[in-house]
Batch of 2 targets.
Target 1
Amino acid sequence: DAGVIQSPRHEVTEMGQEVTLRCKPISGHNSLFWYRQTMMRGLELLIYFNNNVPIDDSGMPEDRFSAKMPNASFSTLKIQPSEPRDSAVYFCASSTTRSTEAFFGQGTRLTVV
Amino acid sequence: GIQVEQSPPDLILQEGANSTLRCNFSDSVNNLQWFHQNPWGQLINLFYIPSGTKQNGRLSATTVATERYSLLYISSSQTTDSGVYFCAVEAGANNLFFGTGTRLTVIP
């Protein structure tokens, strides 16, 4: 298996622009997670889906952030409009069922200037 | 939410030395994982270990769920072991809470 695949690996954008991050989970996994890593806050959960349905989005910082999972093999995290404080590494992870091992993608390093 | 504390925060080792990293958590957990974040930022799975002991080469881990801690042992450390080691736990909400990590530097 190719593992969790994220794109792009790096994104540099100007403040105010829309940013879309993409994730393909491991085939057969039915839980998908979006995490953000910053120096100040470490790794924090933004949202997770189970069977394509958002279960907990309490970690999404504000309305500028939205996430979708239109099918079992694809998810997006969108920031509109982006701000410099959104600069971070965004990770996607997937697992099979509740309380089983989670696997992470390589992350997207976002820089908003 | 659940609290996850890792110690030490930083560790410098001479190549070939052994070390023990600790993870304490504040509540019962369903899942505990150890990850290694390498200098390129990749999060690499080391162990899925909600309880008991596992070994993989020079690494081993033990989780004592009743006492709410886990230990990661690194033996005969190598420079490629450098990076940040994270403990992450799941306590019923189906998402992982991460500790702040232990930054390990192995010098030749």
Target 2
Amino acid sequence: DTAVSQTPKYLVTQMGNDKSIKCEQNLGHDTMYWYKQDSKKFLKIMFSYNNKELIINETVPNRFSPKSPDKAHLNLHINSLELGDSAVYFCASSQAGMNTEAFFGQGTRLTVV
Amino acid sequence: GNSVTQMEGPVTLSEEAFLTINCTYTATGYPSLFWYVQYPGEGLQLLLKATKADDKGSNKGFEATYRKETTSFHLEKGSVQVSDSAVYFCALSDPNFGNEKLTFGTGTRLTIIP
């Protein structure tokens, strides 16, 4: 069973469209995240949710709206897509705390054309 | 703010060579330190971690020691294999946020040739 699963794996869309990426974890973790990895492999946190509540929002444009319907899901909706949004988006989860491991999904490669 | 600086890649080595990937950090307080590995087409996986000064993390023949005096967490392996080819990320957890805010380095792509 996949621990952290995201769909879709690839997403190609035109500028201006609205798209969503879904994420689910079956590990029983209480914290979930979205990370963005750019073309140079630089990885930066976007959002973090703990028990369905937003606890970190790292100056992400408000075109990006995360939604956590329950502890096991954290979806990412993006409005009015721009060329610069092209990247690989990773969902991750962990138990809250300093030393616990974060488990990552396989990533969603978003290409905006 | 917190930051992680990693050795620039890409790094190419022959099989059985010795590997070092440098990592230094800047943080307030006492972060935990991690190395994550990303194999082609996959998400990141935890490779090893250290939670306090002088701790040594180890896994799959890789090691890294938390050096507070030099703010470093260099990754080493004595004899690399082709299967070690991947991108390696050094990271730290914010002492104020724990795992909710991991700060990653830029990643180092490692290629091992037979």
